[in-house]
Every structure is written in structure tokens, then in C-alpha cells.
Amino acid sequence: MPQLTIEGVGSFEVPAGKRLVNALVDECGIDQLHACGGIARCTTCRVEFVAGEPATMRQAEQDVLAAKGLAGTPGLRLSCQIACDADMTVRATSRFAGSGRKDCGARPTDAMQP
Ligand code: FES
Q: Full-prediction pTM beyond 0.90?
């Protein structure tokens, strides 16, 4: 099983292929925001990769990062658009605590969307 390390939090084994956004919540106990429910619209599921950033990016992630002016930001990726298929180390920078939001957002589906 891939190992997911959250800087300043710890390291966790996560099921291979699980959506990163859901692994952050389920296996790592992170209060990760995912306001749009994991459909590549909001960018609140963003994380900063320290190591193990996937080499490829889904079209939906490319499109929303470009639309929000975030394309090309080093290490910034959308956890709803990434599967845990290798060891990764990230900073969980977009969390419910202190966000002022009423909740984290609807739970993203197990299957990648859109
Ligand atoms: S872009 Fe909204 S949860 Fe990922």
C-alpha cells in the first residue's frame, strides 16, 4: 500500500488507487476542504506536494487550475484529481479549521470525477 505522509502530521498507509482527497480524510484524519464535492470546480482540495508529485495531470485539474490563475504554481495540486498510486508527501494547506466555511463540502465519490 502506498504511504501518504502529511508534513507535520505523520505517515499513513492508504489503499492503492484511493482518491487522495478521501485518503486525507479517512486514513490521515485531515479536515481537508473539498467544497465542490470532488468535481474539479473549487480548488479547495488543494495540497502542496513535497515529494512524489504525480507526473501527469488530468484535464479537469489543468482546466480549473488555469481558470483560477493557479496553473504552474510549484507543487500545488488538487487532491480530488489524484489517485494514491505511489508514496507521496504533501502539506495539507486547505483545511476546514479557520476557513470560516460551514462544512468541508460533500464527500467526493470513490470513483474519480469528472
Ligand atoms: S476541486 Fe473541488 S474538491 Fe477538488
A: yes
- Residues in contact with ligand 1 (CB, 6 Å cut-off): 34-36, 38, 40-45, 64, 78, 80
* Ligand 1 atom at shortest distance from the alpha carbon of 64: 1
5 band by pLDDT with thresholds 50, 70 and 90: very high
Full set of structural domains in the chain with CATH: 3-91 (3.10.20.30)
Give pLDDT tens digits for 102-111: 999 999 999 9
d(CA 50, CA 68): 22
User: 29-53 burial string, b = 16+ CB within 10 Å, else e?
Assistant: ebebbbbbbbbbbbbbbbbbbeebb
Candidates 20, 24, 30, 44: which one to mutate for ligand 1, based on the most atoms within 8 Å of Cβ?
Answer: 44
